[in-house]
Fold:
Amino acid sequence: DAGITQSPRYKITETGRQVTLMCHQTWSHSYMFWYRQDLGHGLRLIYYSAAADITDKGEVPDGYVVSRSKTENFPLTLESATRSQTSVYFCATRRGGPTDTQYFGPGTRLTVL
Amino acid sequence: AQKITQTQPGMFVQEKEAVTLDCTYDTSDQSYGLFWYKQPSSGEMIFLIYQGSYDEQNATEGRYSLNFQKARKSANLVISASQLGDSAMYFCAMSDLKGFQKLVFGTGTRLLVSP
Structure:
């Protein structure tokens, strides 16, 4: 049972390029989330989704775009990467209500040169 | 808006001793949930324990317990009988219980367990 997978695990890109980080889950959980983790900030929510075709902004959405055409996939796109977007990105899922646990993927380490 | 504060950047404990990691929160919601996650050096986020704001008993999960003091808005994690494998970053987080129930995280506490 794969659970949540993220790809790529590591990515180096250049300023101005478009980058897409993939998140795939095998559980059919309704909720999916994207976080970024930076030193001194903990994890901050970028975007989230309650179901296919339902997405909304989190705390730090600027410069990012998401889509969710299928329940199992929740890609995150950096439209024009900047150095400030160098970070570790985590995807997470939650089956149902707020007392359900959020399960995290292994993370993608992105470096923007 | 919800806010989580973890004031201990780092903590040290000897193996087999207990340790308390502090977490205070701020929210205007009456219903909310509190979570603790562990992040070892390998990077994955591991769920440890959950406490609901209306739960009367403190949550426990094996060696982990959550010392919930609602009036003080604190949700400290207690790890009993520390093990070397407990060395990791620990994050406190909270969620409201309506809408999309997004998690808000603190900045984390790095725990180092020494032999």
